[in-house]
């Protein structure tokens, strides 16, 4: 089975071209001001529009957004889905409001944190933010991948957090994930995507 891959935190054409050439299934644009990968709608719009119809899906990442913040982005940037960091009921409300697929990000500390039910289209299962971090994801921080091994997921899900070309295969084998999401692990510096690491990551995920 082909593992599906999302490359998150795309900020420029070079990163986008690398993700497309590597065969990524989705690319993510981060609309969160405290992230080193943050893009404005003005920066993301031409990148999102440049993606071919058969290219990766375009995911907008938001942290506790208001409806107005999402609307302001959607007015300019064509997106195929939203990745939301908020509580489950708010994510479901965003799904209803904007009629777009919504993936809810869930930080996992133990198996009790794994959702048994949800009213969204997908889950991004990742580590909890380390103490002192001012953002809930994108921290290059991994969790115990075996926690998801016996889980019956209510919707499709991606594994995220601290994944890199040299650990993604082991993470997939330990977790049972069929999809992975990466940001920090394919960068040469915070916010700077490395085409070579993107290529290696996608290849390793699907090896
Ligand atoms: O990428 C970010 O900067 C970010 C900021 C705020 C919330 C989530 C963010 N990224 C997501 O976090 C995970 C793991 O990222 P990493 O590979 O450990 O850096 C992933 O789902 C990203 O989409």
From TrEMBL:
<dbReference type="Pfam" id="PF00697">
    <property type="entry name" value="PRAI"/>
</dbReference>
<comment type="similarity">
    <text>Belongs to the TrpF family.</text>
</comment>
<dbReference type="InterPro" id="IPR011060">
    <property type="entry name" value="RibuloseP-bd_barrel"/>
</dbReference>
<keyword id="KW-0057">Aromatic amino acid biosynthesis</keyword>
<dbReference type="InterPro" id="IPR013785">
    <property type="entry name" value="Aldolase_TIM"/>
</dbReference>
<dbReference type="GO" id="GO:0016853">
    <property type="term" value="F:isomerase activity"/>
</dbReference>
<dbReference type="InterPro" id="IPR001240">
    <property type="entry name" value="PRAI_dom"/>
</dbReference>
<keyword id="KW-0822">Tryptophan biosynthesis</keyword>
<protein>
    <recommendedName>
        <fullName>N-(5'-phosphoribosyl)anthranilate isomerase</fullName>
        <ecNumber>5.3.1.24</ecNumber>
    </recommendedName>
</protein>
<keyword id="KW-0028">Amino-acid biosynthesis</keyword>
<dbReference type="InterPro" id="IPR044643">
    <property type="entry name" value="TrpF_fam"/>
</dbReference>
<comment type="pathway">
    <text>Amino-acid biosynthesis; L-tryptophan biosynthesis; L-tryptophan from chorismate: step 3/5.</text>
</comment>
<keyword id="KW-0413">Isomerase</keyword>
<feature type="domain" description="N-(5'phosphoribosyl) anthranilate isomerase (PRAI)">
    <location>
        <begin position="5"/>
        <end position="204"/>
    </location>
</feature>
């Amino acid at each position: 089975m082909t593992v599906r891959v999302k490359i998150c935190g795309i900020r420029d054409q070079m990163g986008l071209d690398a993700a497309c050439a590597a065969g990524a299934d989705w690319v993510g644009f981060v609309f969160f001001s405290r992230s080193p990968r943050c893009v404005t709608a003005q920066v993301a719009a031409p990148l999102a529009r440049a993606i071919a119809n058969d290219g990766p899906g375009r995911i907008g990442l938001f942290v506790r957004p208001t409806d107005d913040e999402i609307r302001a982005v959607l007015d300019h940037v064509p997106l195929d889905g939203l990745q939301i960091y908020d509580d489950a009921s708010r994510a479901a409300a965003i799904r209803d409001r904007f009629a777009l697929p919504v993936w809810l990000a869930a930080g996992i500390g133990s198996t009790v944190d794994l959702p048994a039910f949800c009213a969204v289209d997908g889950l991004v299962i990742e580590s909890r933010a380390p103490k002192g971090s001012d953002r809930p994801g994108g921290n290059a921080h991994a969790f115990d991948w075996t926690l998801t091994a016996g889980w019956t997921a209510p919707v499709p899900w991606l594994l995220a957090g601290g994944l890199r070309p040299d650990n993604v295969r082991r993470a997939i084998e330990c977790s049972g994930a069929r999809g992975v999401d990466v940001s920090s692990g394919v960068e040469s510096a915070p916010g700077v995507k490395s085409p070579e690491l993107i290529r290696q990551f996608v290849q390793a995920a699907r090896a």
